[in-house]
Amino acid sequence: MPFTYFWIFLAVILLLLDLWVINSVWRSDNSTGNKAGWTAMVVLLPFLGLAIWSIAGPRGVTKGPSSPEHSKG
Fold this sequence. Notes:
Elements: H1 2-26, H2 32-44, H3 46-56
Helix pairs in contact: 1-2, 1-3, 2-3
C-alpha cells in the first residue's frame, strides 16, 4: 500500500504544478492564442508540457492583484 500512496503523492504534485503553470500562462502578456496553446499542451501532456514550458514558456506576469486589499506587500 505505501507504494500506491507514493504515486498518488506524485500525481498530486504534478497536478499542482500544472495548475500553477496554467495560472502563470494566463497572467502573462502573450496573445490569447498563445495562452490557449500552452494550456492545451500542459493539459494534454502534463509532464512533457510542464518540462517544455519551463524551458520555452512565457516569462513575466503582467496582471497583478485585482484590488489593493489583495496586495499586502
